Amino acid sequence: IQSMIMNQVRTRIAPSPTGEDLHIGNLYTGLINWVMARKYEGKFIIRIEDTDRTRFVEGATEKILDSLKKFHIFYDEGPDIGGPYAPYYQSQRLSIYHEYAQKLIDSGHAEFAYYPKEGAGKKKDYTQAIESSESKDESGQSSPKSIEEMITRGDWVVRQIIPKNEKVIVHDLIRGDIEFDTNELSKQVLIKSDGYPTYHLGVVVDDYLMKISHIIRAEEWISSTPKHVLLYKAFGWELPIFAHLPILRNPDRSKLSKRKNPVWVSWYIDEGYLPQAVVNFLALLGWSHPEEKEIFSVDEFTAAFELKDIKPIGPVFDLTKLTWMNGIYIREVLSHEELQNALYVYDPTLKEIDGVLLKKLIEVAKTRIKTLKEFKLMIMPFLYPEERHLDKEQKELLDAMVMELQKISVWDQASISDVILQNFIQTKRVNFKALYMMLINTDKGLPLADTFAAIGKEKTLALFHE
Ligand code: GLU
Q1: How sure is the predictor about 124, in pLDDT bands with cuts at 50, 70 and 90?
Q2: I need a labelling partner for 117 at 20 to 30 A (CA). Which of 158, 227, 260, 402 fits?
Q3: Which residues contact 211 (CB under 8 A, 6 or more apart)?
Q4: Pocket of ligand 1 from Cβ distances under 6 Å
Q5: In the annotation, is 43 catalytic?
């Protein structure tokens, strides 16, 4: 708290461009980091950790940045907008890591180690610790003198020297103090033989140089943190505040995974979830509103949120709850204009529908849909009827209905409903399911009388003709 008042709050997420898109877990971490920065009038930074060239996915960075914007999470510094600590791509900062790795070597906190390639074609896993302490290669040559020499020679790495028999305490704002025994920590590779840093060196150097005050990240990084703490100490740097967020879980409590839950954030956009609803839902994972509120804006969240109030127990990611919440946003939270805009963003082709007509359809549909996708699916058959194949009896029935509907002088829900009910449903000439089938090729949909009233007489009657 002290340092939060004295120094500027600077938070960050450091995604690796190794997947299709932004992971929903990273969106959660991003949200919390962003909210912390907003709350304390600080800055939120995006740094791209693209040093694992073997897992690099072309276009992933752009996708990640674009996805954050879609959820209205805006950053103050980042790879595409720059900032005072640019570059924000780790792959463009190699000389910085070399400089700091050299400092560690000079002060006895890191060393060169010979790490010969395994069988041809075999991918070398540098993230695994290497314990062999060879200081000569097979031809008897001893350690390189510099990182440049190391890179030219190949097969050498820089690794961290871990002190023996020491305790490292990680102070975690959410979990309290976590104690580690240095004898259990592996000698971490810091610079790989190709000159790229590993995550551990990159993250420490950059968080320090970029003046990150709070490192808020997922629980899975806790076990790496003592190695980072040792590096901060080796450099003589003041430690940032650490907070490890609980990892999101599937309903069966296993770690959130592709097989059980959609993990890429574009899925949520494509399915018609509102960014506001997703953010509200994520806010409630691991945190609850002091007044037990379930529906609140991001501003309200920012005001009420305290990092220390996050519960460390893995919250269950319940899609059903998100869908319910999305329905509430559609029905109650968004104004008509906001909903219409959300629909236009969701599917720009909806702009082709006359504004007055769309407004009426929104009114009819909004209490019956939980996603924007459902809206589109429900209105389309009424506006752009598909081809249907009706038998003679069905055709006669629809013709009879047209005759009755045509007689209506004031085209409103009540009169339309009367005609359908009195002449056809109550006299058992047809039931609703069958009527829906004949009109829109599916056995249920938006309430007919309301929808007919909304789309007008002409469009309605057209629907009754094959
Ligand atoms: N590059 C790491 C990731 O992909 C960053 C972890 C951290 O925030 O320190 O999540």
Answers
A1: low
A2: 227
A3: 7, 8, 10, 85
A4: 14-16, 49, 199, 203, 217, 221
A5: no
